[in-house]
Amino acid sequence: MFWKRLLPVVFAFGLIGCTTKFVYSNLDWIVLEYIDDYVSLNSEQEDVIELSLQQLSEWHKTQELPAYIEHLNELESMDPKTVDAAYVFMHTEKFRQHARRVIAKASPNLYALVSQLDQKQVDELLENTAKEHEEYREKYKDMDEAEIREVYQERMEDNLDTWLGSLSSKQKAIIKSWSEDVKITNFDWADHNDKMYIEMETLFNRRDEVQYFQSMFIRILDDPDSFYTDSLKAKLEHNRQLASDKIAQVINLMDNKQLAHYKEEIADWREIAQDLAAVK
Q1: Run of H or E including 42
Q2: Which helix (H) or strand (E) segment is 182 a member of?
Q3: C-alpha angle 178/183/186, rounded to 5°?
Q4: Which residue from 54, 21, 221 is spatially nearest to 213, judged by alpha carbons?
């Protein structure tokens, strides 16, 4: 959904790539370009977004970046031999908490923006959201289970390769096992997108009912899991537990070269966070 996907964009850009200072300093322009893919804002709405982002950026630099640096320091001290599924799960949840804090901080301003959209803008937003959902469904509709699992395996290897460097044959075997045991959720997500489109359409149709509009908007942002089917919830929980276990197994097999690569990655991210915190 548009606003749910927008919030991670706001600060994910702030921690990616070699042009992070430029991105962080030009966050208003980047976010406006992203929003423009969904809905055309008028000049007053753009001014509101720019002011909100300036305030959010200052809060993020003073409150969030120090927490990221502390978390990176914890990760740097990792001993691969002692890592277990509980350790991986704990740090995964920490990353999720980082994102939740940004969402909580940004949601009032996002609520104010969404509530000010006129009918033409609402229609444009709904149309572009429907197109995005259809593109997602089309992407996977002709793929069989084996092809989807191959995509999963490739994605898993790429992610771990980024942090550890070249993987050993034993580590790749663990990842292959992981991809074979994971619950496929692509079609569940496609169905979920259709469900949330209806919720989004209803939300805007009832935007004159302030109590309903506000409570439903907050629920969508703060409690998205409440819209999941029991089947999707069960699959996601299985996949989280499985990922923690398999990642721990891969980490247990790290050699000295991979550990050095990992520490270098952590140091690079910490330097990025420290540089961003110093941006004026």
Answers
A1: none
A2: none
A3: 115
A4: 221
pLDDT digits (tens, 9 = 90+) for 191-237: 999 999 999 999 999 999 999 999 999 899 888 999 999 999 999 99
Alpha carbons 161 and 147: distance in angstroms, whole number: 21
Spatial distance between the Cα atoms of 215 and 194, rounded to a whole number of angstroms: 21
Task: Give tens-digit pLDDT for 33-90.
Answer: 778 888 898 998 888 888 888 888 888 889 889 999 999 999 999 999 999 999 999 9
Exposure pattern of 202-212 as b/e (b: 16+ CB <10 Å)?
A: ebbeebeeeee
Amino acid letter, 204 = F
Provide the residue type at 1 as one letter: M
- Sign of the CA dihedral 226, 229, 232, 238? positive
Per residue in 127-165, pLDDT (tens digit) is 999 999 999 999 998 999 999 999 999 999 999 999 999
Q: What span, in angstroms and rounded, lies between the C-alpha atoms of 79 and 245?
A: 16
